[in-house]
Amino acid sequence: MKVLLINGSPNEKGCTWRALKEVADTLEKEGVEYIFGIPGEENLEIMEALSHSNIRFITTRHEQGAAFMADVYGRLTHKAGVCMSTLGPGATNLVTGVADATSDGAPLVAITGQVGTERMHLTSHQFLDLCKMFEPITKRTKQIVLPDTVSEIVRIAFKYAESEKPGACHIDLPVNVSKMSVSSGEEPLEKQTAPIEIPDSQCVKDAVIRLMMAKNPVILAGSSAVRNSASKAMVEFVNKLHIPVIHTMMAKGIIPFDNPYCLWTIGIPQKDYANKVLENADLILSVGYDIVEYAPAKWNSDQHKNIIHIDARPAHINKLYQPSVEVVGDISVSLRSILSQMEKPFSSAYAREIKLKMEKEYAAYEADMSFPMRPQKVLSDVRKVLAPDDILLSDVGAHKMWIARQYHCYQPNTCLISNGFASMGFALPGAIAAKLINPDKKVLAVTGDGGFLMNCQEMETAMRLGNPFVTLIFRDNSYGLIKWKQMDQYGKSRYVDFTNPDFVQFAESFGAKGYRIRQAEKLIPTLEEAFAQKVPSIVDCAVDYGENLKLTKYLKELYSVL
Q1: Residue 103 lies in a domain
Q2: Cα radius of gyration rounded to whole Å, the chain
């Protein structure tokens, strides 16, 4: 390990490193393993300090990619992922990924370089008030104006980024401050773990009373249940009380999809099986649910639902989401406390009948060999290739709707979907981070041809890192989700079609592997071959999105008879 002088002594070039050592030390104290970003003139000093630390800096090809990598790191580890940029355009390029982290509940810390404080009162080259810019999309944004505040500001950023509901925090570091010395005796602050919050016993009793009075309760499981590692407690709760569970897109896998009480996922634009079960429920147990995931207007428009809110934090304010009881505290403790006072299970005959219909429909596509491939068949094959603990990352587009509906999970955090902010370009850079921290798992980025080209430059980053994940492109030469909505509303589409490069040659130009699917029966063996490679791979698969409107029509007919 390189040695950094910390007593105000100069290095071999006569520069003082004490302030920068403080930054690096505080980040190490927070447990930072990776920082994703791009160096710039205004963060040269901190880059130099990091080179003497145990932190690995991952140089990306665009700051948006860096932010998405930090975002996914946070989702999978529950520790703040860190991204870094220089000032001005470097910082503005971070914005989408930072906003995604905050909306989707991923802990993230963004660090930006900045002009010296002596220039901030002037119209100045590349100067932008970054704290004002990041304020609406972060939980906290702070500028370091005195070197002695480094340890406090870094601790603030990580504490609030990682506390429920997690999200992004921002630190702005002016270049002149980064060169200042820190007072002797300054040390990084200790990271403290918050104690488990125990739910109020009276609230638990009230929830039990409400639940005992119900005849058709349903659980709506959300992303906070994933973040708070409540899967085991939820499975116990469901198996003993026989209450059906519906997942939001970001909660997939909380209950294994083959559990008899798991009714898969809600959230596609059309009303589906899950919507009918919610409609017939007389009580909704909202467990870790966030209204940003699936708006209450879509399942409680008449305001008549009786709701029990179970989460680590109180409910959001929304006139269509007004719980009769709020059980606030550790989700697992809350569920087990309620379960200990319940006397008997519920009848879930209707929900189980619905589950049988869902399973029959799902199985109907397993033998489909039409080409271009139907999205149902693609995802059926993907499920066969990936093990229960492997990770799929979904970009945003028509394929996301199909993944939500057709790709089923055995474990939480094995299907990552950007659905709070819903950012295109999320999957490919996110897969780089997922593979970095899970080198022994298969990692699959599923993206449309539109989303892929938004951050495809990060293929070079993946190659440089020796990061062998697979990208599966649903190719339809169009912004398929927008076309779906246009066709549904107007019967025609406008301004959504485009051409594509040869994705196989594109992959090979980076030194990666490229594959093109020409027959449905080739998808499984091609994916298996791609996952066996020691370099990243791209699989180009033409998809029949004529299934989009067929699904719309089918679900309208289905809903009327369920």
Answers
A1: yes
A2: 25
pLDDT digits (tens, 9 = 90+) for 465-518: 999 999 999 999 999 999 999 999 999 999 999 999 999 999 999 999 999 999
Q: Spell out where 204-331 has E strands.
A: 217-221, 245-247, 262-265, 283-287, 307-311, 325-328
Tell me how far apart the alpha carbons of residues 470 and 189 are, in angstroms, rounded to a whole number: 40
Same domain as 169, residue 108: yes
Cis upstream peptide for 372 (omega within 30°): yes
pLDDT tens per residue across span 247-271? 999 999 999 999 999 999 998 888 9
Contact 474, 397 (CB under 8 A): yes
Q: DSSP H helical segments within 392-521, as ranges? A: 398-406, 427-437, 449-452, 458-465, 480-490, 503-509
Q: How far apart are CA 431 and CA 453, in angstroms?
A: 15
Q: Are residues 213 and 172 in the same domain?
A: no
DSSP H or E run through 558:
helix 546-561
Q: Which residue, chain included where needed, has tokens 């699936």? A: 294
**pLDDT tens string 86-141:** 999 999 999 999 999 999 999 999 999 987 777 777 777 777 899 999 999 999 99
Give the Cα separation of 397 and 450 in Å (integer). 8
Q: In which band, very low, low, confident or very high, does the pLDDT at 15 lie, cut at 50, 70 and 90?
A: very low
Position 18 scores a pLDDT of 56
Range(s) of the domain holding residue 73 = 18-178
- Which string of b and e fits 202-227 if b means at least 16 CB within 10 Å? ebbebbbebbeebebbbbbbbbbbbb
Q: Looking at the structure, do residues 423 and 481 belong to the same domain, yes or no?
A: yes
